[in-house]
Design brief:
The protein is of the alpha/beta class and 252 residues long. It has six helices and 15 strands.
């Protein structure tokens, strides 16, 4: 895995939904070969641990990171101003494997939606299914349409799109796709993986786990997976975050 620490100039850092920010960084003078589904580790001034943020987009010399303010570190990130130099360790992890000639359903839940945008840019007319708790948290729908995707939206309370869950929309439309990629909270990923296993569709999932080092040197993000008939522990940051769904051992 090749990665580097870079100082990238902050172009903008705007709130695009309730507590959700769109950070754009200039890498035009510093090539950044990012694959869809990879992530960046952002240094936050005054904090010892970096914050892992999925890559939302990486084209035309602009690295786009969409993140949600959940604690002190991301609150500090949200206050960074254009012109600042941001310390970024990237690109990290293994991303989605996209085969040409196949149509993909790209499933995102909550803050798992952003990495689907760069993934959509690598696909031919993908079906993007986004799920949020309510309308105040809906993001990136116009971006997906500009990327050539068909979009379906659902919310838990029905305040935007269809009321229900991404798995409802996936079941209704799975016959129109060849394979599935998903990112979001673990219960959603477990449910998506179950639907795909039931209906015989290949599925890749991007796991959300706490990360400390981001490069596999610690054990914070270890998960249990099946390999060659055995259950072993692997690192989400180094071996993932993307895994074939059938490999992941879900608990509960």
């Amino acid at each position: 895995m090749k990665y580097d620490i870079r100082k990238l100039r902050l172009l903008s850092n705007a709130e695009i939904a309730q507590g959700i920010f769109d950070m754009r960084l200039d890498y035009s003078d510093n090539p950044l070969p990012v694959a869809c589904g990879q992530f960046a580790h952002v240094y936050v001034p005054g904090k010892s641990l970096r914050r892992p943020i999925s890559v939302c987009d990486a084209r035309d010399g602009v690295l786009r990171l969409v993140y949600q303010v959940k604690g002190e570190g991301t609150r500090i990130m949200s206050q960074m101003q254009p012109g600042a130099m941001v310390d970024v360790l990237a690109p990290l992890g293994n991303g989605f494997s996209i085969d040409s000639g196949k149509r993909y359903a790209l499933i995102g839940g909550g803050i798992g939606v952003p990495p689907m945008l760069y993934t959509a840019a690598q696909c031919d007319h993908p079906l993007v299914i986004s799920g949020f708790r309510n309308a105040s948290l809906v993001i990136l729908q116009d971006d997906f349409r500009r990327a050539g995707a068909e979009t379906l939206l659902c919310t838990d309370d029905g305040s935007a799109g269809q009321k229900g869950f991404v798995t409802d929309l996936l079941r209704e439309n799975i016959s129109a796709v060849d394979a599935v990629c998903a990112c979001g909270p673990t219960p959603m990923l477990r449910a998506v993986a179950a639907v795909c296993a039931e209906l015989g569709k290949p599925c890749q999932i991007s796991l959300e786990e706490r990360m400390a080092c981001g490069i596999g040197a610690c054990l914070v993000c270890a998960v249990r997976v099946r390999k060659d008939g055995e259950e072993i522990m692997q690192h989400v940051c180094k071996n993932g975050p993307v895994f074939n769904a059938e490999e992941v051992v879900f608990h509960g």
